[in-house]
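User: Let's play a game. I give you a shape written as tokens, and you guess the letters that built it. Ready? Here's round one.
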């Protein structure tokens, strides 16, 4: 199997977390969240290289305080992010093109810098599906009943049995994700995850069931939850 390249979008401002330090640099059990996240891929034999994507103001901080400090040898280079997540991933894909990527079937994984608790033992299964059908994301069945709401009024209650929460990593063969981003740019389509860009083109995307530990550290209470989850495993 071709080894994978990983893009790690970590260029957000952490508005919902608040505070003066961006959430990806907050420490959990004495190590920055982004360093935990990078370790998941650094240590996996099926991952060849990693491109962290951070705010342009943070590039030297990230290089010194994360990459050099923890010695991540698979980090190819750090990419400057964009105004929203999709623009950040786009910059990552452009960097791959610049670095001469030309294997159409190469698996490209995209994983939020703010998800330090992904169980990397799932990577081989994820990569196998990407190899077979082209696109696969990690997700979990929704626990809560989800309402479609407009102006505080419920306009729909989709059947919970069909609802899943999308997580990352999300992985795609290089040609598929490139084409999906090009089409989205051409149409001005913006979404909060990468799979949406393929779905709208009718490309099949499989879901591999993950676990509820793989939270995206988003609001202050997530720090407590993540600390507790790390406490049991490190
Ligand atoms: N992200 C990014 N570039 C952006 C915005 C987000 O690379 N312009 C990254 C974040 O750093 C994070 C991931 O995308 O790792 C998921 O985004 P989210 O959890 O929404 O993080 P933030 O955008 O930083 O948080 P908020 O929405 O609360 O401001
Ligand atoms: Mg955001």
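Assistant: Ready! My guess for every position:
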């Amino acid at each position: 199997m071709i080894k994978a390249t990983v893009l790690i979008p970590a260029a957000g401002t952490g508005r919902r977390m608040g505070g003066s330090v961006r959430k990806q640099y907050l420490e959990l059990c004495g190590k920055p969240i982004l360093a935990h996240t990078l370790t998941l891929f650094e240590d996996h034999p099926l991952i060849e290289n990693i491109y962290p994507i951070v705010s342009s103001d943070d590039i030297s901080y990230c290089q010194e305080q994360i990459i050099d400090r923890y010695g991540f040898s698979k980090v190819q280079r750090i990419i400057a992010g964009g105004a929203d997540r999709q623009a950040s991933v786009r910059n990552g894909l452009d960097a791959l093109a610049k670095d001469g990527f030309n294997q159409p079937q190469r698996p490209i994984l995209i994983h939020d810098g703010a998800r330090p608790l992904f169980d990397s033992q799932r990577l081989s299964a994820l990569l196998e599906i990407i190899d077979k059908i082209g696109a696969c994301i990690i997700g979990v069945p929704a626990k809560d009943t989800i309402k479609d709401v407009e102006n505080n009024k419920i306009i729909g209650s989709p059947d919970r049995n069909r609802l899943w929460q999308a997580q990352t990593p999300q992985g795609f063969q290089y040609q598929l994700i490139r084409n999906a981003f090009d089409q989205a740019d051409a149409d001005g389509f913006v979404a909060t995850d990468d799979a949406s860009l393929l779905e709208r083109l009718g490309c099949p995307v499989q879901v591999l069931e993950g676990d509820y530990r793989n939270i995206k550290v988003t609001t202050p209470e997530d720090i407590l939850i993540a600390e507790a989850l790390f406490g049991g495993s490190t």
